[in-house]
Write a structure and sequence with these properties.
16% helix, alpha+beta, two-stranded antiparallel sheet, disordered N terminus, 6-stranded antiparallel β-sheet
């Protein structure tokens, strides 16, 4: 798994022990700890143009993307998400064709 985003001091999240944002679970914990009013939206993409060889999970807050992680498979991407805290939405027909699913 690779990440693009910002790094801050380490936090502990469900057994992880690394800088915030290093995985989707830690990003969600960080958002909750900073008491942001934005709703976290994780969007899974299948080989988008900026990462043509990867499955990508992007964390969106309202209308802007804040972090992105790359994975080899859809199963790995789903496994990295805090699924107990999220609800899966199917993609809409008018969505970008690379969008696989959305998690709120």
């Amino acid at each position: 798994m690779n990440v693009s985003g910002t790094s801050r001091s380490p936090i502990d999240c469900n057994g992880c022990n690394h800088a915030p944002g290093r995985c989707p679970r830690c990003a969600l914990v960080l958002m909750r700890s900073t008491r942001t009013n934005s709703i976290p939206i994780f969007v899974i993409y299948d080989r988008p143009s900026d990462f043509p060889n990867h499955i990508v999970v992007r964390l969106w807050r309202t209308e802007r993307m804040s972090m992105a992680w790359t994975f080899a498979t859809l199963e790995e991407a789903r496994a990295a998400l805090p699924l107990d805290d999220l609800v899966r939405l199917e993609r809409f027909e008018e969505d970008d064709p690379t969008i696989v699913e959305v998690w709120l």
